[in-house]
Design a protein that fits this description.
The protein is mainly α and 254 residues long. It has one domain: Serine Threonine Protein Phosphatase 5, Tetratricopeptide repeat. It contains ten helices and no strands. Helix 1 crosses helix 4 and helix 8 runs parallel beside helix 10. The longest helix has 43 residues.
Length: 254
Amino acid sequence: MRPTLKILAILCLTFGMTGCGSKNGQSTVNSSGADASTADSSAGEGLPPELTPEQIEARKFFEQANELARRDEDAAAADIYQKAVSLDPDFADAHLKLAMSLEVLEKKDEATEEYKKAAEAYEKYVRGNQKDAKAYFNMGLAYNRLSKPDHAVRAFRQAAKLDPENSDNHYELGIAYGKAAQYQESVAALQKATELDPDNYRAQEALETARINLQRWQAMVKQQEAIAKRQASKNANAANANASPNSGTLPDPR
């Protein structure tokens, strides 16, 4: 299996990687300073106004690593991504791709550290680039992998706000809502994703699951309310019973 496909497989299984079965899947890594000539970047998007020599060199390494990954040379790709982030510690895309490569290599702890660095770098980047939907999207992916659904929801929600016609933003937002146990919001987001892209079979499957989870949650809430109501009734009856012996008539003073 090609490394790119392996990375996609990991992300699809773990946190609903974008573009799996979607006709308008956006690139996973395409913002926050990636060079315009990289395979994973949109031309001219996210480039700093002026790149330092180190940043330029880092982006060359990033391109080399992407090519190695496409050739199924995961270990070599990880080494080159590491060179890129060493030259530019704020290169969020490189941290994210490094994390993915390390995960393919089953280096879980190292991958987790890189996901953390990627999330931190994206947070720093978006402070000065608040309209970059792709950066928020990638940030959401990193937080999802770190099992921080609330943070992922915030990032994907902003991505969907900035790019509302992209079904992948709504799909990932729906997945993150589900992990945060916000089932009604999950259904709404996934419904939007399927409306925007009827061919996104992963969104359709996720929507069915979200609806089932919502029904279970609603049933659980009703059950808890019924239990609480019965308990309140028992407590009231017990209080009345305890009060009865003390409620007799006073003895005749005569």
